[in-house]
User: What shape does this take?
Amino acid sequence: MSGTKLMHDGHDETSDTVGEQAFRRIRSDIISGELKPGQKLKLERLKSQYGVSVSTLREILNRLTTEDLVIAEGQRGFEVSPASVDNLREVGDLRLVLENHALALSFASGDLDWEADVVAAHHKLSSIERALLAGDKNRTFEWIKYDFAFHHSLIAACGSKSLLAIHQSIFDRFMRYHLLAASFRGDGVSHDHRELFDFALARDVAGAQAKLAAHIHAGIDHILSTGKL
Assistant: This one.
């Protein structure tokens, strides 16, 4: 997946400062696995790679420690947070708590425009999943982007920008493990998404929450089955 960038939120980098662009690039490279778990983050090397000063890099890496994507080692510098089974399960649990709460709020408040966005997001995701199921393994990274877009659409009407922002951070940390596994789960994940879509249009909160729990736990089991952790 070298060279790929995790840009799943429609953000336009042209409006960012150089430092903000570097922050987004480094964050994306950690999530995508280009910067590997446990990798030492040498400031001089990063300075030339991302085109920012050492002081800016320190600010960026300290920001990333708040998302648990980077570990600060005191005088020894920084490293990419390691990947572990325990952390995967913890992140999965956090995602489930946040997303379940946001689903209930969103289903209660979503209007016709929200429904249209859910339909569009599911259509795009299901198209990518059909390609993957047909054997196009090069679409795995693209699937990550549309997977987030679909799950985000389900909770977009929750009415809380803070909840959406925290959910995105946790979702990205969860997807980091999928990208490390570099493996698509197959028919099961596609069926899960179709059921979540149906529950959303029916405003069935209990059904969606139960399906989401099964969906996340199946994702964890799949990641572990690849033996990449």
User: Anything to note?
Assistant: The first strand starts at residue 40 and ends at 41.
